[in-house]
Design goal:
mainly alpha, 7 helices, 0% strand, 149 residues
Length: 149
Amino acid sequence: MQVGNTGICLAEGICLVFLCICTVFDIKKREMPISILWLGMVIAACFCLRQIAGGSLTVVQAGTSLLPGAFFLLVSRLTGEQIGYGDGIMLVMIGLFIGSYRCVMLLCVALIASTVFASFLLVLRKAKKDSKIPFVPFLAIGMGVIIWI
């Protein structure tokens, strides 16, 4: 997605704010308020539509940016919500903000970070193999890495 540096920084900043807010809820309550998720989706969709109208994004690129989140929602459905629907919705929102390529990069960072963290908990015997950990904090870490690179 080419919007210019200001547009990219704004999108990344707004996305990071939503991720940080949702991180707090995910850690404390293991769920995210639907109102915050919907607000993020509306803002992300408006940002995406603005890019399409400005000619810096095609409809196909916008549709492709939904794929990582759609995949997570499908996996959530197939696994009986072993991965929460909120995580998939967050990835849809992130994809609309930063595009599919950067969303996949963010997801890879988040998956690696969560694997390292879960392994650490297992080694210290602070968790069992079927324990659940919040995933949004790792998405926020991934967003930080993406912004940094």
